[in-house]
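Pasting as-is:
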Amino acid sequence: MKIRYDVLVFKERDTYVAYTPQLDLSSCGTSPKEARKMLDEAVGLFLEEAEKLGTIEDILQESGYDKDKDVWVPPTIVEIATAENF
């Protein structure tokens, strides 16, 4: 199965966190590269388990994914912003 997902990487103290909003999954590492690698593994395990349960297509469709030929394409992120509320 081929799937696309966006990855946001941010720093929490000395740890880098990689997060995919479309699947609401995250992982961490000591560098941005390691955090992305760990996230790729987490996504792979998540998809593997969902496929075993027979729920993968339902999960992806509920998450806003569309299938384009043989690739699942995520909904488009249109804005990432930093906001303050005092």
